[in-house]
Amino acid sequence: MKKINKIRMHEMVSEELRAYIRTNELKKGDKLPSAQTIMKTLGIGRSSLREALRYLEASDVIEVVNGKGIYVKETSQFQMSAKIMVEDEKTALLQLMEVRRALEVLAVELAAQRSTEQNIEEMRRYLLEMEEAGGPASSIADMKFHQAIYKATGNPILQSIVESVWELFTVFWQAPLGNQKIFNSSFPFHQTLFNAIVEKNPEKARAEFNKLMDDMEQSIRQFAAKKAFQETY
């Protein structure tokens, strides 16, 4: 028997909404069903839908316009995701780690040089949310923290490149390898990275970010090996 992985409700709802967008071939700007219709169709409550919409907004998949409805924000990532889907989840995660290192090591250096008080407060808020949740298991806060770093670079071209592949990056916040808490050990490096950005120290920010990535990579390898063992025996 294999271990049954727990999936949080908002993740299940967000996947249903993603599937709806793909199945109906919705394009950027197309409107999704109303919140009431979604809740009735999926048999869920308002809080579960609200959390799922917040998650999808953080992933740049949808945009919720108050008083008007829910709209598709971006669809190009879906096609890109389909192209790189592989059976070996560990390999896919490690390959995406390489891409994140290439983009985000530059981002943390620029953020350490250019971040404003507003940027710092935004990062601090999401870091506090993670801490209160016991670490990066608070997937939305973790995702928002890293997005705040990209925003703090003040480089719209870098932000545009990141946004074009962000749907691929969301796998790090969707219970990779079936474990929602796989990256909880990386939380101390989120704190030290933040401190380096506050100190305006790009060299330290780069070093702390690489420690964070090293910890995540080690967790991927360990959990993948454990999962393979459980599936074999």
From TrEMBL:
| Range of residues in the leader sequence | none
Q: Which CDD domains match?
A: WHTH_GntR
List, alphabetically, the InterPro entries matched. Answer: GntR_C, TF_FadR/GntR_C, Tscrpt_reg_HTH_GntR, WH-like_DNA-bd_sf, WH_DNA-bd_sf
Which keywords are on file for this protein?
Answer: DNA-binding, Transcription, Transcription regulation
Tell me the domain of life: Bacteria
HTH gntR-type domain location is 7-75
Protein name, as recorded: GntR family transcriptional regulator
